[in-house]
Amino acid sequence: MTISTTEDPVARILIIGNAGQVGRELEQLFQGMGPLVAVDRESVDLADPEQTRALVRAAAPDVILNAAAYTAVDRAEKETDLARAINSQAPRVLAEEARTRNALLVHYSTDYVFDGSKTSPWTEDDAPNPLNAYGLTKLEGEQAIRKTGGRYLIFRTSWVYGHHGQNFLHTMLRLGRERDQLRIVDDQVGAPTTSIQLARATHAIVSGVLAGRFGKAEDWAGLYHMTCTGSTSWFGFAQAIFARASARLGVKTPELVPIETAAYPAPACRPHNSVLSNARLHARFGVQLPSWQIALDEVFEALSQTR
Ligand SMILES: NC(=O)c1ccc[n+]([C@@H]2O[C@H](COP(=O)([O-])OP(=O)(O)OC[C@H]3O[C@@H](n4cnc5c(N)ncnc54)[C@H](OP(=O)(O)O)[C@@H]3O)[C@@H](O)[C@H]2O)c1
To answer: How many CB atoms lie within 10 A of CB 78?
Structure first.
């Protein structure tokens, strides 16, 4: 558990999941907003509702940022009960505790709540229909928070990666070192989104909410899509990664072969189109994330400085 304080506290912040991709960036950015408690799995097991409840009561936060989740999409098909405890029951407990304290709860959800059948970007009003257990448990988490009500923000995002963490970018760079040829799925389209951009957008919105810039809770509380702009397939993403890795890090580019999902069987089904419209986020908060290509450039800038 990390505890830090500032001399001029604005709000008491609790960050859950600070060892994850998004949680790590949130912890950096929210330093300075007020007394901050950031916890990882060693400090709280979200699968245990009593631990989760006790954590919030001990931290007594004004803002809860929940970046923890069961994110192993394929494993969730077998460990659905555990995924449900972390992705659905824990958010319900957090929402109940937040409402009791009149605290702001910020929670993240996923593009995998959709079945991918639409040909244009999905909006918050489109009906979810998850194809896999991970998406289902994340949807149940959203529903539990919305049912509990109070001061909450749910940000649905997609294809999260960054400088740190286990993600597609680092998998590509590792496989590129090990193999001459990589076969990559080309018929799943989404928006790669960086953990740092998510944390920055979250920080801007939470700061505005705390400063009263967005009015009363009934004016801003709710569900929003939050991704980098533009879209690509996993194959297109891999091409963009290796173009930058070659130019900036001197990494050799393997032969990249586009394949269909059917040629790469996985335990969990994934949507073909999970691009999310960010129009509501922009209209309500004036926040727009950059294009996925610019966000990728930023990650390579960070990678090139640490290599
Ligand atoms: N990654 C994506 O592509 C993606 C896409 C769409 C939406 N999202 C959503 O975005 C949010 C942030 O994702 P992320 O990519 O930052 O996830 P991440 O890197 O997998 O981090 C999740 C964190 O949750 C922690 N955690 C797991 N089980 C826990 C438990 N029982 N108790 C306490 N902590 C636990 C993990 O701890 P350990 O490190 O010990 O496992 C990990 O640090 C999540 O809500 C996720 O569903 C992610």
So the answer is: 13
Active site residue 134: yes
Mean pLDDT of the chain: 95
218 Cβ contact list (under 8 Å, min separation 6): none
Domain ranges for the chain = 2-164+193-229+276-289
Catalytic residue among 70, 112, 134, 152: 134
Taking CA atoms only, the protein residue closest to ligand 1 atom 24 is 68
Report the CATH number of the 2-164+193-229+276-289 domain. Answer: 3.40.50.720
- Residue nearest atom 18 of ligand 1, based on CA coordinates: 20
3-state secondary structure of 262: helix
What is the rounded CA–CA span in Å between residue 35 and residue 29?
A: 13
75-80 average pLDDT score: 98
> Rounded distance, CA 37 to CA 204, Å?
19
